[in-house]
Automatic annotation (TrEMBL):
Organism, as annotated: Novibacillus thermophilus
Annotated protein name in UniProt: DUF2905 domain-containing protein
UniProt keyword Nucleotide-binding, yes or no: no
Taxonomy, superkingdom: Bacteria
Transmembrane listed as a keyword: yes
UniProt KW keywords: Membrane, Transmembrane, Transmembrane helix
InterPro entries according to UniProt: DUF2905 (IPR021320)
PANTHER family associated with the record: BSR5223 PROTEIN
Annotated transmembrane regions: 7-25, 45-68
C-alpha cells in the first residue's frame, strides 16, 4: 500500500475515534463550556469562542504527539 493511502486511512480512523469519544465523553467532560470560554449573548445574536477549550485540547494533543515521538 502507498504511504499516502496509509496516512489517509489512519487519519480517517483517528477522526472517527475522536468523534465517538467527543459524542460519548461530552456527557461527562464539560469541553466547550469551561471557565474562560467567551460567550456573548444579545437579543438576536450569540457569539461563542471556546478559548480555554482550544488551549486544553492543544496541550493534550501536544502531549500525545510528544509521546509518540519519544517512543518512536
Amino acid at each position: 500500500m502507498n504511504e499516502i493511502t496509509k496516512l489517509l486511512i489512519g487519519a480517517g480512523v483517528l477522526l472517527i475515534m475522536v468523534g465517538l469519544l467527543w459524542q460519548v465523553g461530552g456527557k461527562f467532560l464539560n469541553l466547550g463550556r469551561l471557565p474562560g470560554d467567551i460567550v456573548v449573548e444579545k437579543e438576536n445574536f450569540r457569539f461563542y469562542f471556546p478559548i480555554v477549550t482550544c488551549i486544553v485540547i492543544s496541550v493534550v494533543l501536544s502531549l500525545i504527539l510528544g509521546l509518540f515521538r519519544f517512543f518512536r
